[in-house]
Amino acid sequence: MQKNIRKVLGEFIRTSQPLALLAGALLYACGVGVLVYLGESVDWTVYWFGQAVVTLLQLSSVYLKAYYDLVPESSPRSATDNGRMEDWKPISRNVYLLAAVTTLTMGAMTTFVLYSRGVLQPASLLFLGISWLFAFFYGVPPLRLVYSGYGELISAIFLTTLVPGFGYVLQRGELIPIMGLFNFPLLALFLALTLATSLETYFSEIKAGRQNMMIRLGWQRGMNLHNFLIGLAFLLVGISPLAGLAWSLTWPRLLVLPVGIFQIWQMWQIGNGAKPNWRLLRLTAAASFGLLLYLQFFSLWTG
User: Fold this and answer.
1) pLDDT at 79
2) Which residues have a Cβ under 8 Å from the Cβ of 120 and sit 6 or more positions away?
3) Is 211 helix (H, G, I), strand (E, B) or coil?
4) DSSP H/E element including 223
5) What separation, in Å, do the N-terminal and C-terminal C-alpha atoms of the chain show?
6) Cα 164 to the center of its chain, rounded Å
7) Is the pLDDT of residue 73 over 70?
8) Taking the domains of the chain in order of start, what are their residue ranges?
9) 220-254 confidence digits (pLDDT tens)
């Protein structure tokens, strides 16, 4: 019994995607950090309520996806050598539905608190509305964007653009162009991360009838786009001082460039027929995005 409880809890935690929640928190903090960089004050009550809205949106999205992923199939699933169901999940799909309804309700209540405080201006309402549409239809029919071939793009825009933008406009009420200097390199690296990780499961996803960005592009174009996105990300970082960004916010992010070059080299080797080291590729892709995100967060809040 205790072993099964641990298994259920572990599955629920994995479904909740704690690393994605951490990325969402750091990206939200980066959006507010632009205010700190500009020397403006932060309303901490609004900050934490806004962070709660972002986290609850993320959780409701993954729980709704899990609920529809577990729709019963008409044909029996294949069993493993141990006699267990290959796709068996220890958590009932109704638990995920309950979790999704709970997080959506809590998110609505938190949004009402922000509205009652008068901080939801037209810009923040726009960011929140688009974020809700992306989060809801990411896993919910009829759109079910996660398997449309555009799910990675939707996730990237949501996390790296809408989340930090929402954090900023919630405090100030309007967006400024400088946000793009921080968001677009992260957007490019996040897309490169998803392309790198989806390459490993390319043929299994095709066999399962699922669509992702790599499959929609084809593996050759997907690999070329992966390399282009990494180069574009660091090009945008490098030229950001020409757009008025302080050098103190530029050079720390350029420290990640060797990791990005190594990631491109790995993908180039795979394209030339070398045996893939999938674990190393996953770690390198995660490091490129994670290090750039962390250094950006650190520079904004301390520089």
Assistant:
1) 43
2) 111, 114, 128, 170
3) strand
4) helix 219-239
5) 52
6) 12
7) no
8) 1-71+90-176, 178-303
9) 999 999 999 999 999 999 999 999 899 999 999 99
Radius of gyration of the chain (CA): 20
Phi-psi domain of 81 (left: phi exceeds 0; alpha: psi -120 through 50; beta: other): alpha
Which residue has 């044909």 as its token pair? Answer: 75
Going by the DSSP 8-state scheme, the letter that residue 85 receives in this structure is B
Residues 6+ apart with CB under 8 A from 239: none
Pairwise CA distance, residues 270 & 272, whole Å: 5
CA distance 150 to 58: 17
* Stretch (H or E) spanning 284: helix 278-302
CATH of the domain spanning 178-303: 1.20.120
Q: How far apart are CA 229 and CA 262, in angstroms?
A: 14
Point out which residues pair with 211 in neighbouring strands: 148
DSSP state of 161: I
Architecture of the domain defined by 1-71+90-176: Orthogonal Bundle (1.10)
pLDDT at 194 over 60: yes
Helices 219-239 & 278-302 angle (0-180, nearest 10): 20
